[in-house]
Known about the structure:
This protein is an alpha/beta fold. It is built from five helices and nine strands.
Amino acid sequence: MGKTSVITTGRRCVRLLSVQQYINPASEGGQAVNKVIFLDVDGVLNNGTWAIEMFDKGIRVYHDDLLYEPSLGQLKRIVEVTDAVIVVSSSWRQIPIAYLHLKEWLEKFGMEIFDKTPYVGGERGDDITAWFNRHPGDWKYVILDDDDDMGIHMPHLVRTSFDEGLTTKEADRCIEMLGAEKG
């Protein structure tokens, strides 16, 4: 029998049911998944400094859903070292063409989206709580975001700078928090 927990966000109480493990269909041998990266995009996989440089060259980063390849490389390193799955918490999950572009960028770098958080309104932390309510289990997780509206999930936030995006420093912190699975 699994354990039951309750998370209170201040506005609502969410019951997490019995502990389960989810299987990543992409993993060989049906490996159990218990590590999650909640992923924001703007300020994580792209950044303000690069966007300005690109704009000066006539390229519109935000309009064209472009991502910064060094940050994508850092995300790939986190995924490879920790064997974590990606759950999109960015507003990009609500914009079909942006979500498609994100999926294509991640696939180009050998990654895939496991899931996305539901939108419940309020803080992004509320969306993450709602995801846990729908996917009960014994999860180890980090939140990669340039904002801090995580409520009770603040201890799991690895905050990036909107001006720099995901760098080696934040990637190393994620790996430390999630734990390495491979060599």
